[in-house]
Every structure is written in C-alpha cells, then in structure tokens.
Amino acid sequence: MSAPQVSSPWGKKAQVIPCSLEDVMSEQLASDLQNDSEDTEFKKAISESTAAAATSTVAPPDIDSDDMAAILAAAGISEGESNNDEIIARMMQLQFDREHNTMLDREANKYNGGSKVTISFENYKTKHPVYDEAEEDDDDEEEENYAPPKTKWEESPPKIGVKGYTGSGKNITTKHDKVICGRKNAERLMEFPPEFESGDGEGMDMQLPNRVYNKLKKHSIAENKRSTRHSDKKEQSTAEHVLDPKTRTKVFRLVNRGVIESLGGVIAGGKESLVFQAKGGSVEGMDIPEHLAVKIYKTTLMDFRTREKYVHGDHRFSKDDYKKQNPRKIIKIWATKEVANLNRMRKFDVPCPSVIILKDHILVMSLVGSHQTPAPKLRYANLSVPDLQDAYEQTVAIMKTLHHKCALVHADLSDYNLLWSDGTVYVIDVSQSVDLTHPQAFNFLYRDCYNVCNFFEKQNVHNVLSPEQLFNEVTDLDIQGEGADFSAQVQRYDKERKETDMVLGHNYSQFGFDYFFEKAQQFREAELAAMAGSSSDATKKSLTEMAQKYRFDSDDSDSEEGEGGEEV
Ligand code: ADP
Ligand code: MG
C-alpha cells in the first residue's frame, strides 16, 4: 500500500515506503552475512594465491592497471565473481607488498653474494596483516604442542605412597631419603626466577641438601625484593634518566605556559638536585628574566630522609606533617622551604637568585651569572687575592644579615654554595636553611663559620677570623673557648634557648615570609572550603589576588595525587 501524496508549499514530500521491523532486521542480517562471506572469500583467495606463490619459482609479473584480471585470476577469483572494491583493493595491496618484499630479497642477495657475513632487509619488508595472523597462529600452535624433554628425574620418579615409604626390609626408601630430597630440591631450584643464575641442573643428576636449598631460597627472595625496589626507584629517579616522564611533562607545561622559553643544558648535578639553564619566556603580569636556572629536586629520597633534622624544630614546618608525608611530598616541602628562604633573603637584600615559580619539585629562579654563563662556585672561581679578600668580607656581611635581619642560618654554607658573579658573592642552596628558632640553629651556624673560615684561610686571605671569633662576631655573643669546648657551649646555648624560649628577643611576626606563608596556608584552606561550597566569594577573591601577587602558584590542574595547591 502506498502512502497518500500530500501537497506542500515547500515542495513534494518523498514517498515513504513503510516496512516492518522484521524486514529491517533481516536487511541488517543480510548485510552482516555478506560482509562475512566477503571476508571468507578474501581469506580463501589469499591462502590460495599464497600457496600458488610458494610453489612458483617464477618472480611475480610486473603489474599495471590492466593486469587486474590476471591478479584476480592468480588469486583464484574471476572478475565476475568479485565485484567488491574492497576485496580488489586489498588484493592489489597484497600484490604490491609481495613485489616489494621480493625486490628487497633480490637486493639482499645481490649484496650478500657468497659472503659469510650477510645483510638482511627483513625489517624493511611490508608485513601484511593476513600473513601476520597466519604466522601468529602457527606460533601458538607450536607453543601448545611443545613439551620440554623429560628430565631423568621425571622419567623415573620413585613412587612413595601415602605411607611415606616404599619397598621393604633393607630396600625401604622413605620420603626423607637423601637422594630423593636432594633431587626434589634441585628440581625446585629450576623454578627460581630466571634472574637467579642456577645453572643447568637438568644436564646432570644434581642433588641439593635441604640446608643448601633453604639458604638459596632465602637469598633468591631477598635478591628479588632488592631488584624490584631498585628498578622501581630507577624508574622514578630524575638522576638516572635525567628527567623522569612525570617531571618532563611538568617542565613541558611550564614551557607551554610561557614561563620557560626553552630548557638548556645541565649546569650542575648534585646529590639532591639537577640544575638546568633555561631561557626565560613571557607571561603577562610576571617579571621573567632572560636567563633562568631550573632546579629539579631529585625524587630519590635517601638524602632527604636523612635531612629531617633541618625541618624538625623549624616553627614553619611541622614535624608531624613531615613524618606523615610520602616521599614526593617531602621533596615538595624541601622545595617550598627553599623558596621561602630565598624570598626572605631577597626581602633583606641578600644577593641570591629570585624565585620565579615553583611547580612541585621544579623551582624556576633567576640565573646567577653574566648573560647566559652561570656564575662559578667560589671554590672554582680562581679569584685574585684582592677579590678573595673582598669575597671574604662580603661573606661575613651576608652571614650577619642572615642572622640579624632574616633570622636564618644557612646550615650548609661553604665555598660550594656561594657563587661569584661580577664582583658579588651570591648565596644559593637554602633548602636546608633554618629559622633562628630552630633548636640547633646556633650549632649549624658554628659549622657554617668553620667551613667559611677554613676556605678563606686556605686561600691565604689576610686576617681571617677563627670560626669561634666569626661566630661571636655574627651573633654578637661572647662564647669562650675553642673547638670541642666551644661546640659544647654552643649546644648548651641552643638547649637553654629552647627551654627558656628566648630567641634573642626576635618578634617573628615581623618577617614578611612567615606572614605570607601563613596566608598561603589559609589560601589553600579557602580553596578546599570553596570546593566544599562553604567559602565566601570575597574571601576567595582576596586570597586569589594575594596568591597572584606573591606568586603562590594556584594552578593545580596537573597535580596527580590530588595534592591541591601545594606549590608556593
Ligand atoms: P644542591 O642542593 O644539589 O647542591 P644547589 O642549589 O647547590 O643544589 O645547585 C647546584 C649547583 O647548581 C650549584 O652549585 C650551582 O653551580 C648551580 N646553581 C644553582 N642555582 C643556580 C642559579 N640560580 N644560578 C646559577 N647557578 C646555579
Ligand atoms: Mg649545593
């Protein structure tokens, strides 16, 4: 029955032929069947033509467009039989691939000639999926049919029943029999992980006493654990692979955001970090210098764990927080600490790199040096005597400022962490630096004094103070004695300070850093609260503005473990 024709001002409606769901379903079924049959037809054609090619020693004919019928005929299909374009195209491709491979074989034969050392173009051959499938199937079959040759032990295993022994009288053999146990142990040894070199025990009648087997097993388990641990660490380690994939992605993001234009070579690779040179990019509202240093803290944590003591007791970083953290977070704490200390030093005009941005364990800062040449460490700067004298005086002045204005102790001050650029001494590497409230601050300071005096003394600088004199000069204290005696007094002083909680009368709220650090914490909390829908927009806005002003990097879009806004 045809549908009635409806006249319409927009034109004529196409005639709709009604059809039942059953028809639609069968049409779909028919189409599926056709596809299936085409596939089978193609595979059949391929296998026939492959067989024909294998028996033929004649090279395949050169192909041109008119040879289609010939190809199809070779594949056992007449043109009338197959009018499906896809089959024809696939056949053509197969033919081309085959010719390409034959040509490579010919080339290889020409090169190789009678030579014993031969070359092969196997890797350049076009593998056709149909061949590959066939090959894989063969392999599977082979593997299924493969059974390893039986060992001597398996060929004639002694049968010991449930009673636990076999035979009788003099010929009784128990399950504790030395030979049986020895062989069994040898068998089990073969099942150890492949990395464990056990040798070929099957080639001989190997027997292992229980004692030896147990020892080997223990060793194998320990080795296995050790190697897994080792390889895990290697994967993640920035040191071994220069940059691990996660770090690389983070650096790329900084490039994408325009903070870094391009990453250059490694300036230095220490035990805790890798420092790269980089070209500064441009981001609106950010003052990015032309030359940057990118410090990437290593993600292997052995060193960081041992440096817990620099965090414990620093009123800005809770000991409990540190303990609770996973390794990646601990590194972030170190990086945050470095940023905090650099910012505080900058605030009081101590020459040091200025922080551009911190993203997890990647710290982008200004490069100390002239143009794109990084400044040398004092140790390797080869300074003239007057310059050395000048460097010494600058270092003492820096130590005084650090103490009286920044209320910081460097805690790793030496000729390795002082750079010389254009007649100025710069302080770097302050991740371990501690606040004066730290219970060991003065102890660390005495050690710094020792390192500084030792270096300049060795460089023959005149009038270098002794470490004890320098300590008193920097702190305005008057501790007597020297060496171990002095050190003991410093430690006592540290202890008393802690007990009486009298830290030179400093009022720590005056330090800009602490203020902003606390605000940063509030900012994170506000963000979390906002996520839970309980923070006012005004609060969030003001905190966001503050974060932008002081570059607390609030972009957490790529933070993997949901460690919201950890960066400063
Ligand atoms: P580590 O904690 O591994 O010792 P540092 O902060 O001391 O890391 O950096 C290692 C080396 O990288 C330094 O000795 C110095 O040569 C170089 N370096 C670090 N920061 C800068 C910088 N801002 N400008 C130039 N060189 C730098
Ligand atoms: Mg260093």
TrEMBL record:
Biased composition (Low complexity): 47-59
SUPFAM superfamilies assigned: Protein kinase-like (PK-like)
Any one cellular-component term (Gene Ontology): cytoplasm
Biased composition range(s): Acidic residues: 132-145, 555-568
Top EC class of this enzyme: transferase
Enzyme Commission number(s): 2.7.11.1
Keywords for this protein: Antiviral defense, ATP-binding, Cytoplasm, Immunity, Innate immunity, Kinase, Magnesium, Metal-binding, Nucleotide-binding, Phosphoprotein, Ribosome biogenesis, Serine/threonine-protein kinase, Transferase
Cofactor: Mg(2+)
GO BP field: defense response to virus; innate immune response; ribosome biogenesis
Entry keyword annotation includes ATP-binding: yes
Superkingdom: Eukaryota
Domain RIO kinase: 232-476
Subunit structure as annotated in this protein's UniProt entry: Interacts with CASP10. Interacts with IRF3; RIOK3 probably mediates the interaction of TBK1 with IRF3. Associated with 40S pre-ribosomal particles.
Record-given protein name: Serine/threonine-protein kinase RIO3
Organism of this sequence: Littorina saxatilis
Source species taxonomy: Eukaryota, Metazoa, Spiralia, Lophotrochozoa, Mollusca
